[in-house]
Amino acid sequence: MKGYSIEQFPEQSARSRIVEANISLKDAINIAHYLRGMTLSAAKKAVELGIEKKKPVKYFRYLDSVSHRTGTGPGRYPVRALKIFKKALDNAEANAEFKNLDLEKLVVRHLAATKGQMLKRYAPKAYGRAGGLDRDLVNIEVVVEEVKD
Question: What is the pTM assigned to this prediction?
Answer without folding.
Answer: 0.90
